[in-house]
Amino acid sequence: MSLEGGPIPNSMRRLHIHVEGQTEEEFVRDVLCAHFVQKGFHSVTARLIGNARQRASRGGIKSWQSAKKEIVNHLKSDSGCVVSTMVDYYALPSTWPGRTESTRLSHQAKATHLEKALLEDMQLALRGSFVPLRFVPFVLMHEFEALLFSDCGAFSRGISRTDLEPRFQEIRDQFDTPEEINDSPQTAPSKRIENLIKYDKPFHGILAVHEIGLDRIRKECPHFNSWITKLESMR
């Protein structure tokens, strides 16, 4: 089975991304939608996984069974869409296929291992009706906040805290790419930010992303860029 993308028929020009929380939902709506529509998709939408709107604290991934049910239902009910995911590797439950095994792998292999496992599990769920081209899983390394370290100057300007640029840059300089900023409860990207400011993820995150820009994020975050490139190729 291949994870490669390819041209999609004209009848499959809708992109639907199942996301982890409100910030990712707004990122799809405010940033990715315009980009992918320009690339040939007729529409781009996002949906929070696992009834996040009904929980006291929005966002956060629950079990794979819950997420898989939603994705399967979407694939079955809308044959004219491509479905993807945008979920954080950090704190992803062990019930997600490949998550436990991935902890023993190198940074470069973790996300691709998970994505392959998700694709294979979806094939088992849908069996004869499964079309690999229609499901493009994506796992963020290690979480959304890593993207903000793609440009520390723009990050600090976006949240109106230019005084923090040196502190953000100090964190960034410890890693080859922002996606390598690791995932322990003390050193995950969001935890590092929270040590410096009172961080409001939906508010600060989207402000920063708009200041940084999609092109800069793609340049600095190779796994994220590979996902965008794969979806772009489906036109």
Counted by DSSP, the helix tally is 10
Quick one: biggest sheet? 5 strands, parallel
The general outline is: globular
Helix percent reads 40-55%
In whole angstroms, how far apart are the ends? 21 Å
Mean pLDDT: 90
* Portion in strands: 5-15%
Give start-end ranges of low-pLDDT stretches: 1-5, 52-59
Radius of gyration: 17 Å
CATH architecture of the largest domain: 3-Layer(aba) Sandwich
Number of strands: 5
Give short descriptive properties of this protein:
alpha/beta, five-stranded parallel sheet, 2 domains, 45% helix, 5 strands, 235 residues, globular, Rossmann fold, 10 helices
What's a quick, concise take on this entry?
This protein has 235 residues and is of the alpha/beta class. 45% of the residues lie in helices and 10% in strands.
Set out the fold topology.
Elements: E1 14-19, H1 22-38, E2 43-48, H2 64-77, E3 81-88, H3 99-102, H4 107-126, E4 135-136, E5 139-140, H5 152-158, H6 165-172, H7 189-194, H8 201-212, H9 214-220, H10 222-232
Parallel strand pairs: 1-2, 1-3, 3-4, 3-5
Helix pairs in contact: 1-8, 5-6, 5-8, 9-10
